Amino acid sequence: MKELHTFGWYAARIKPHLPKEAFKPVPARLWGGLAYLLVTVAGFLAIGLFDLHVVLNVLIACVLGASFAAMGFLGHEILHGTVVRKGWLRDLLGAIAFFPLSTGPSLWRKWHNLTHHVHTQDDENDPDSWPTLEKMLKQPFFRWVYRIPLPVRAFFSFCSLAIQFSAHSAKMFGVYIKEFNVKKRPKVWLELILPWATWISILFILGPIKWFFAFLLPLLIANFIVMSYISTNHRLNPLVPVNDPLANSLTVTVPKWVDVLHFNFSYHTEHHLFPGMSSKFYPLVKEHIKKMWPDRYHEMPMIKAMIALWKTPRLYFQGNELVDPRKGALYGSLGNGLDPARIMARSSMLKQETEVSDEFVNKESNDKTI
């Protein structure tokens, strides 16, 4: 692994080359949010007021799901303070944008801004990092999961993208609620309860079938879209002792029109260098990164990144490798031997592979004996 640098080290070298307006909020981004909000309201009204054919309901649900996801991307940008700077307005707009995903602004800033960004791909402190072999061996359920063949695991892992954001958000609420000041906890609870109370109320208004098309199916679609990005952000990258965005983050490429619809969410390395900058300027940041550190920067087409996720296990071994403990098969990570065009287990690590497999099997045997 190359020498690691902090995100501040990179940012200090790029900042002099960027225009001053790149560091100012861009409230015009709210027009896109308004468009998605109007589409969402129209979709709910269409499903609620008319008895449409199931095919039309499914199509509307797809549009709603895409809108939920895009509003979440805008909410992410808003809560980083890149759209408006006033705290109360930032939180209000962020709450509206994240309302379909039922994630409160206070929780999001604590979990994402103040923890994930500060400790990205840190084994102990990043709430979004995937576990190491050592941690997995201490959890009987996950040891059972990792006995399933990798292709089967990959299939169910991709299916679970449809619920992962909502599930992880609920988990993060449980993790962080006690860290909020006692006086602020009622507000954090309200930000959790209000969206779900709204969606459950709509269930009784619309009935279960229309509610499925108006909310539940769109929520599953939104989860899948959001997690397709989030799962490629870091899961092919190594765990690192230094928060180096060029080592621990991946930028994916999508068609330009998708970037427009998703507020440039694909530019993830750029985001970790300048989280307080509007994503409108990330293409410019990308140009400078590729000029200054072309050998460090990681980017690939979204589909290619998803295929790489399918073909590799989601478990770390010694920080910079991915391991399938069922066979003791080791795979590189980005910057550490992983070639997305030709993914295969390393054949030169036979001794380590045997040790990994033996540790996994021995742990299982010991548990059965006990």
From TrEMBL:
Residues 56-300 form the Fatty acid desaturase domain. InterPro entries: FA_desaturase_dom, Fatty_acid_desaturase. GO terms for molecular function: oxidoreductase activity, acting on paired donors, with oxidation of a pair of donors resulting in the reduction of molecular oxygen to two molecules of water. One of its GO terms (cellular component) is membrane. The keyword Ligase does not apply. Coiled coil: none annotated. The chain crosses the membrane at residues 30-50, 56-76, 144-167, 188-206, 212-230. GO terms for biological process: lipid biosynthetic process. Keywords: Membrane, Transmembrane, Transmembrane helix. It comes from the Bacteria. PANTHER family: DELTA(5) FATTY ACID DESATURASE C-RELATED (PTHR19353:SF19), FATTY ACID DESATURASE 2 (PTHR19353). This is Fatty acid desaturase. It comes from Litchfieldia salsa.
